[in-house]
Structure to design on (774 residues):
């Protein structure tokens, strides 16, 4: 008895009791849905009755569905421009703020300001940009007209060629501050010795960046790229709310160009009640994200030194 | 340290509360005399103070009014929860799939019912003690049929009929066509080519035939969208597409969208003639959803008066609230085909523990003559489904419509409705067809491309439907 008590004390079993609530909630709300969705993806479940097993039929349907591929193309297109702008801007700011020659003060204030767009609800962001980009009387068009850069208003959200880019730019605007904070944290984690040694050796700004900052930031970059990919391919709220010049919808107006994979999934899960097919879309997206993440690890991760 | 301890306790308490709240079944508000809670999505009202409790989940606020009346003469409590249509199906599915015994009463619109029947959510009303089949001849035929599942078992009943008609301005008809007789005016809407020539003549006289180009939506299609598992794009649908394009491209409407400010405004007389861009929201400089902003933005535009609206019988209530000084100048005539739109069908949840009470309420709402009489008065003109009451009111004159006998007219229209045209696919297929029509009318796509895209959407959404291109 005494031995058992001692063993229990030694292993700090009481700690398990403290994490038990989390584990129970995690199992119910995270693990169970993941496996339930996987199971449903092999059925024709319609939201009621018993799920009917259909093997890979839903997955075959996903692969053959041109609108699924269109929504994936739209999603990747919006994410690609977004990540280039988001990371590009974050990098630029990181270079400026981390340069020992500039010695810019007030980093904390700038960090907070850059992060602010990320704190605004997507609904407000959508409304804000719909107002700014209004075809006839929007501020952006008025400025462009007044400055003579364009001769007539641009229908930013109403035409296919610009609507998707607008969403990408808004996404980049919302997220560059987040990337900047992470990259800055990474730069600040690099020992100063490296930079001082480079300075003594007479290395220029770009040489320092290319040979010291960038290689040592690679793990952080990988983190930013993977989390951005996961978030980007699950894009829903902004294009759903913007929906061209119409009201919120999964249609992805204009002409389906803003319809993302998750909006397409939502259409089947909640509008046409094809829960099995929606689950298959969800898992297909999961495997696509997994594949691209592995590629990112392969090409960005490199070997641990 | 003490602060941290207090914060930890508060956070732990909040988490516990959130878990408890997740497990609540919505019946916590029982027992209050009159309690109203409202958020963006639902509106809950409890009436009655004692006795058994009935919970109703509905799409239409009408049932709240019925519940308030019911508790006046019955020793019961009723909690009515009005849920947004977009959320209704999900909420009912979640509750009933989870084996929840409330709600006791659930409702559905025609396009939702087939799934609800298949899911077994509605109680079989043909069995004892309900024996609904005994009441079959008391309700208008098509409504009775909508409430039956594929095996002909009665699952739901509606208190109203919703046949479609064309509401027109008698004064304009008299001025332009020399007659305001509903039978004669009905000939001006006999088919799509005739509607176009009617529209042209009205435009020549300074009027517009419709406020929007979607007014014939309730009458489109001679057959069902899906017949024997095959998509059925009949000639009437194609003619409808042509009509929509002609109306739009030849400036024959006021370019208002249904349910927008100018659309309602057109019922009262003068309305600004908008542009195609405003209607398609490509130009959103005119806020058509805000009366004040709309008036300001359109004060310099030319105006017109609109001749007609295509709406189901519940349009009587819409016009009643919006006709203003044109009251008494309206008439209703038949459209190019029979049609109907909407309708709230009431059934008993198969999981309910208060089925007897639910049946009593259902009977009282749908099959009781006194209730139907009260509802006609209370709603100021809704069209009930009880045949005996419709017969009794067939000679009633409606002052808004120049004394026309509307109940008689709606009964005739209801007799022509073919419910077999309604399928579970209608919502998505209609939306896709609407998108195709819009693409063609705005010049975004040619007819062939738009129809092929329509086929693609239907094929992708419902692979079980065969499509012959």
């Amino acid at each position: 008895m005494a031995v058992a008590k001692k063993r229990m004390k030694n292993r700090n079993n009481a700690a398990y009791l403290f994490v038990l609530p989390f584990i129970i909630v995690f199992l119910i709300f995270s693990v169970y849905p993941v496996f339930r969705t996987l199971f449903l993806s092999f059925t024709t479940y319609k939201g009621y009755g018993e799920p009917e097993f259909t093997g890979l039929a839903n997955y075959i349907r996903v692969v053959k569905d041109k609108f699924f591929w269109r929504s994936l193309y739209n999603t990747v297109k919006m994410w690609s421009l977004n990540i280039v702008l988001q990371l590009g801007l974050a990098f630029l700011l990181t270079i400026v703020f981390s340069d020992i020659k500039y010695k810019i003060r007030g980093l904390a204030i700038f960090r907070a300001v850059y992060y602010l767009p990320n704190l605004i609800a997507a609904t407000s962001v959508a409304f804000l940009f719909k107002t700014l980009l209004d075809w006839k009387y929007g501020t952006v068009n008025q400025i462009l007209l007044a400055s003579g850069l364009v001769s007539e208003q641009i229908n930013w959200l109403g035409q296919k060629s610009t609507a998707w880019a607008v969403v990408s730019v808004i996404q980049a605007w919302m997220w560059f501050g987040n990337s900047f904070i992470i990259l800055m944290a990474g730069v600040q984690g690099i020992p100063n010795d490296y930079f001082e040694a480079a300075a003594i050796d007479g290395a220029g700004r770009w040489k320092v960046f290319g040979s010291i900052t960038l290689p040592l930031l690679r793990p952080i970059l990988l983190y930013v790229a993977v989390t951005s990919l996961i978030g980007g391919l699950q894009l829903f709220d902004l294009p759903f709310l913007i929906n061209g010049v119409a009201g919120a919808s999964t249609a992805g107006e204009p002409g389906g160009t803003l319809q993302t994979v998750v909006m397409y999934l939502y259409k089947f899960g909640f509008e046409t009640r094809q829960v099995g097919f929606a689950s298959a879309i969800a898992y297909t997206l999961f495997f696509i994200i997994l594949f691209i993440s592995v590629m990112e690890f392969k090409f960005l991760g490199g070997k641990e030194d | 340290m003490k602060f941290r301890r207090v914060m930890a306790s508060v956070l732990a308490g909040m988490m516990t509360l959130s878990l408890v709240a997740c497990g609540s079944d919505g019946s916590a508000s029982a027992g209050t005399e009159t309690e109203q809670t409202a958020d963006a999505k639902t509106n809950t009202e409890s009436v009655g103070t004692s006795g058994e409790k009935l919970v109703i989940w509905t799409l239409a606020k009408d049932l709240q009014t019925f519940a308030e009346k019911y508790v006046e003469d019955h020793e019961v409590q009723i909690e009515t929860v009005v849920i947004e249509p977009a959320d209704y199906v999900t909420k009912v599915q979640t509750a009933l799939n989870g084996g929840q015994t409330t709600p006791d009463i659930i409702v559905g619109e025609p396009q939702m019912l087939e799934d609800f029947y298949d899911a077994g959510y509605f109680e079989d009303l043909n069995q004892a003690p309900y024996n609904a089949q005994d009441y079959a001849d008391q309700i208008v035929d098509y409504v009775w049929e909508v409430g039956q599942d594929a095996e002909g078992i009665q699952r739901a009943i509606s208190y109203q009929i919703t046949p479609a008609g064309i509401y027109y301005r008698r004064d304009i008809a008299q001025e332009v066509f020399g007659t305001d007789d509903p039978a004669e005016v009905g000939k001006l809407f006999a088919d799509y080519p005739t509607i176009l020539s009617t529209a042209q003549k009205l435009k020549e006289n300074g009027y517009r035939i419709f406020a929007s180009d979607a007014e014939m939506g309730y009458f489109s299609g001679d057959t069902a969208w899906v017949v024997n598992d095959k998509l059925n794009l009949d000639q009437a649908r194609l003619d409808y597409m042509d009509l929509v394009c002609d109306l739009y491209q030849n400036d024959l409407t006021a370019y208002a969208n249904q349910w927008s400010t100018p659309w309602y405004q057109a019922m009262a007389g003068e309305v600004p003639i908008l542009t195609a861009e405003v209607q398609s929201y490509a130009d959103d400089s005119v806020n058509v959803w805000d009366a004040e902003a709309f008036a300001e933005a359109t004060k310099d535009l030319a105006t017109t008066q609109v001749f007609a609206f295509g709406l189901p019988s519940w349009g009587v209530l819409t016009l009643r609230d919006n006709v203003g000084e044109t009251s008494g100048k309206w008439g209703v005539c038949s459209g190019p085909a029979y049609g109907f739109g909407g309708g709230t069908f009431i059934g008993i949840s198969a999981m309910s523990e208060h089925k007897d009470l639910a049946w009593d309420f259902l009977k009282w709402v749908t099959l009781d003559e006194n209730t139907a009489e009260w509802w006609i008065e209370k709603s100021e003109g809704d069209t009930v489904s009880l045949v005996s009451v419709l017969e009794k009111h067939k000679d009633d004159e409606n002052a808004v419509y120049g004394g026309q006998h509307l109940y008689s007219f709606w009964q005739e229209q209801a007799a022509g409705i073919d419910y077999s045209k309604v399928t579970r696919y209608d919502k998505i297929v209609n939306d896709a067809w609407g998108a195709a029509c819009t693409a063609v009318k705005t010049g975004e796509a040619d007819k062939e491309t738009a129809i092929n895209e329509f086929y693609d959407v239907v094929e992708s959404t419902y692979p079980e439907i065969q499509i012959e291109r």
User: Anything to note?
Assistant: The longest helix of chain A spans residues 66-98.
